[in-house]
Amino acid sequence: MTLPLNTILSGDCIAMMDSLPAKSVDLVFADPPYNLQLGGELLRPNNSKVEGVDEEWDRFSDFAAYDAFTRAWLKSARRILKDDGALWVIGSYHNIFRVGAILQDLGYWMLNDIVWRKTNPMPNFKGTRFTNAHETMIWCAKSAETRYTFNYDSMKALNDDLQMRSDWTLPLCTGGERLKSGGKKTHPTQKPESLLYRVLMASTKPGDVVLDPFFGTGTTGAVAKKLGRNFIGCERDPEYIAAAKERIAKVIPVADPSVLMAISKRSEPRIPFGSVLERGLLNPGDLLFGGTRHDKVAKVRADGTLITDIHRGSIHKVGALVQNAPACNGWTYWHFQAGHDEFMPIDVLRQKIRAELH
Amino acid sequence: MTLPLNTILSGDCIAMMDSLPAKSVDLVFADPPYNLQLGGELLRPNNSKVEGVDEEWDRFSDFAAYDAFTRAWLKSARRILKDDGALWVIGSYHNIFRVGAILQDLGYWMLNDIVWRKTNPMPNFKGTRFTNAHETMIWCAKSAETRYTFNYDSMKALNDDLQMRSDWTLPLCTGGERLKSGGKKTHPTQKPESLLYRVLMASTKPGDVVLDPFFGTGTTGAVAKKLGRNFIGCERDPEYIAAAKERIAKVIPVADPSVLMAISKRSEPRIPFGSVLERGLLNPGDLLFGGTRHDKVAKVRADGTLITDIHRGSIHKVGALVQNAPACNGWTYWHFQAGHDEFMPIDVLRQKIRAELH
DNA sequence: GAATCATTTGAATCTTTAC
DNA sequence: GGTAAAGATTCAAATGATT
Q1: Same domain, residue pair A137 and A182
Q2: Do residue A298 and residue A241 come from a single domain?
Q3: What is the pTM of this model?
Q4: Which of B166, B312, B356 best tests the A interface by mutation, with the highest count of A CBs <10 A?
């Protein structure tokens, strides 16, 4: 079976997900309904307050229904996730704690909880509580043992070369981005594209398949299309589906795929230190220098090992030994003499070789 | 029975709470074990060791054991709470979702979840996830029908006459405030007094009784005494108790809490260039132009870096490289094409984002 | 003594590949 | 499956050392 890529499946998300092949999706992003147990359900039809044991039973039954629903869709999502896939859920204090506990119970492995700080939240008009100015997202891998995609360098770049933190400050979806029909908002809880931009940039690769079980008006699909990812949406409401289709059709994908690729040291090809010798960038007998004052010295041997008066081994091993450190990256630790008083890390030689590979 | 006010009860918190009269306490503040379940040792890039939390009190065999423990102490706490009392719990993603779900199951009524944004969190040294830069507190009333204390105006005053939001930006407990014994921290997870200050100012009145079931080194007691509230602590570890007693003895209550309200002024928020992309003000693949004749050209990548035929990096770095200059302010150097022959500096896009923050 | 630079540290579920 | 080796990786703030 081929996946219904870049389409919206009309119907209940559990049935829809169950119709897809197992281990076929790279990412699930879910914005499920918030807990329905609020307000009126605490009142009887005659408006008297529910009290005592009845109260607890009622409430338990409400939470139980929400829990059962949550468990069901999270189970279905887990089946279709690839083993190295991941899942995001967004919610508020009404539902996110139940969602989080069930995620853990099902074996998902939490990677972060992310706080979306709203720059422009709705104030608390009655002054009864703190302004509810954030929502919470949970990001988790399929299990504690599985791998997952995290474009660390992209996130760092997006944040002016500082590690991206677990709190994200972004505005609500308003203005031209907010879908309207007949002057009213099409969907009550449309999420901003900036939020999905960061989610997809962080945890997917170009070409990945992203499934959204509660597609709504298609923010996930719109951003996925823009960023060169494939999407699958599940949605029951025909009006939302129509709005999402129209919206996504207008999205222009980024034309140049090269601007989408994450650049990470981890994904670059490995270069053995021996290659540096084979290409004559260094020669057997050359000296390498380590330490802040370049006072540690080692001699390069023809087989690519280093030797000092007492140590012998790889650039990493000898680097660790001369520093008496548990570990060492020899590429950045060792320097060669490039001029009278100029030392350069041997990593530049590796870069030279890597450049030739392109 | 009279309450053991302003004392530390030595022993298990559940037994201690069960020994107190029902409906006798105005507030419970709890910093329970987080159930971190850390793996092996973790080294910083400089190879120094991170002191993790591996205390016996944070070890649980599985989620079921942690849940049973959580349910037990939350039940005991609920019995001793006055009907118009409230409870706070702090935690991280390791435990807070389980705590939150159990709170709801027991009939507590959530008022807010509060995010403590750390100004100086520990980074993610291995680049595997987002920097875990926050913890979560849940504030709840005893039930949906009960009243609770919220000093709305105090909170507004604390926040420059703006409603206090659900995200609080506060530094970790370090420096002189951090209790040390023999050069090492007395308690691995001592909370900052600023956090408790805000909690107690928000949700208690002078003279109220505040119980902390996991008293540790007594931050709750210290701030309670300072603010003219009464405290009751429960703690098992004699060393923590001794440190807390000594600490609290030194606290001088303040006559007028308003003198403590000095709150750091917010500085102009830093806007990473990546935000411009996330918000769609520029798009991946767009061209930027530098130089007086706009003859330097760079392409915007999806992660917020720029790329030319030979250079790659942040707006500042690439700006410097194309000019062969030591440094460059990319915000003013780079321009985007706003019309047929019109170029505008990308700084106007930053201004646009800043305006939304106010 | 002031200024500058180097070191330390904080609730952390913290690697990947080859053999 | 396990073990060993390669090699990638940190931010803010306080404290201590040096000039």
Answers
A1: yes
A2: no
A3: 0.93
A4: B166
Of A207, A226, A260, the last residue of a domain is A260
Q: In what order do the strands lie in the sheet with A296-300?
A: A312-313, A306-307, A296-300, A287-290, A335-339, A342-345
pLDDT at A37 (0 to 100): 52
- Asked if the structure places residue B145 within a domain, the reply is yes
In this structure, of A46-50, A71-75, B306-310, the range with the lowest mean pLDDT score is A46-50
B66: closest CA among B29, B88, B37? B37
pLDDT over threshold 60, residue A353: yes
Phi, psi of B126 (to 5 degrees): -95, 0
Strand D nucleotides, any atom under 7 Å to a protein CB: 5-15
Residue A306: Cβ within 10 Å count: 26
CB B151, CB A107: distance < 8 Å: no
CA distance A269 to B291: 36
Same domain for B249 and B318, yes or no, is no
Rounded Cα distance, B31 and B212, in Å: 8
Task: Report chain A residues whose CB lies below 8 A from the CB of B202.
Answer: 130
Q: Tell me, what CATH number does B82's domain have?
A: 3.40.50.150
Q: Is B357 within 8 Å of A169 when comparing Cβ atoms?
A: yes
Same domain for A33 and A137?
A: yes
A203 and A125, same structural domain?
yes
Q: How confident is the model at residue B258 (pLDDT cuts 50, 70, 90)?
A: low
Provide the domain limits for residue A289: 273-356
Among candidate residues A239, A260, A281, the one where a domain is terminated = A260
Residues A55 and A144 in one domain: yes
Q: Is the CB of B175 under 7 A from strand C?
A: no
Tally of domains in chain A: 2
Residue count of chain A, please give it.
358
| Kind of pairing between the strands at A230-235 and A209-212 | parallel
Residue B356 with chain A: CB contacts under 8 Å: 119-120, 171
CB-based contact B63 A105, cutoff 8 Å: yes
Which residues lie across from A136 on neighbouring strands? A91, A115
Are B115 and A159 within 8 A, CB to CB? no
- B74 and B168 share one domain: yes
Those residues with Cβ within 8 angstroms of residue B234's Cβ, 6 or more apart along the chain or in another chain: B8, B9, B11, B12, B13, B16, B17, B211, B212, B213, B214, B215
Question: Residue A57's pLDDT is what?
Answer: 34
